[in-house]
């Protein structure tokens, strides 16, 4: 049985070349055959031909530039989560991973490597140094058994890339790789401009077909029929992708989230030290302290304060573990803020493939991604004290 991953890799190499070839053929057909030969020379409509070319070339250039932008973003920076300390995986683990990938059916495999139990686990501090992070039911961050490290918020493991990807959306053969937070805005621009370009090409070819039939000529230029067919197929597909991408942007979700619409999230939300226990939620205090047996335990704030010097007490941070309801999205900021978090803050960024999305910036001390009104609602729902 052929290796499906090898087939995919070849598809990702071949299809982008075919896409560029289609754009080249379309340019020749629309400009040379339709606008110049048909409209300009055969019909003698110089103004119409010039006007159509003025509309065609800006759209054509924007489509090619946006495609190049998303292609190189996917190839050079697909949004991979760096491996902890740059450590490489050992050979036996790599073999086990490839064996599992051959038989994998789910988006993410059941874990075979347990979470790191060390209180000094690499990368753990990056989570509890923030005020809010996505976690498991016990308050620890999500763990990737394939990468053998903690997963940042909204990251998923890609079987094809063998790494975790931030805001992974889908593996797209048309752009040659994984569409994620580093390329989703460029991908949206590409599908939008492709739909507009196909609509223009289709309109030009239909106009030429109608004029040809009105003149009594029953012999139709094959290029006219070809452009109608190509623009219809690519236009409908890209228009549908644009609508889907727009929906994802406005609701701040990904294709992975859409497939798991009923999922719930656990959020570790920082609360003031000394907050009394509550039956409404569990708590965890970082840094984790080792037990006598060498394992770790999520310590309570009072224990941490009693066992640490006054100078070190500020290093302990206590988090309440809050669970959302199905269909609730803690990263839903509202339609306008969702749009700006992906497409940018300026109109020039919405239409020109210039910069990466603002959501690619994870330097905030509050959380990996901005959280929406649901966080305040969860605080009220679980009766959390204010963290001051």
UniProtKB/TrEMBL annotation:
Keywords: Acyltransferase, Lipoprotein, Membrane, Palmitate, Transferase, Transmembrane, Transmembrane helix. Its EC number is 2.3.1.225. It is a multi-pass membrane protein. It is found in: Membrane. Residues 140-260 form the Palmitoyltransferase DHHC domain. GO terms for biological process: protein targeting to membrane. It catalyses: L-cysteinyl-[protein] + hexadecanoyl-CoA = S-hexadecanoyl-L-cysteinyl-[protein] + CoA. InterPro entries: Palmitoyltrfase_DHHC (IPR001594), PFA4/ZDH16/20/ERF2-like (IPR039859). Residues 85-121 are annotated as: Disordered. One of its GO terms (molecular function) is protein-cysteine S-palmitoyltransferase activity. The chain crosses the membrane at residues 12-36, 48-72, 190-210, 222-250. One of its GO terms (cellular component) is Golgi apparatus. Belongs to the DHHC palmitoyltransferase family. PFA5 subfamily. The DHHC domain is required for palmitoyltransferase activity. This is Palmitoyltransferase. It comes from Metarhizium album (strain ARSEF 1941).
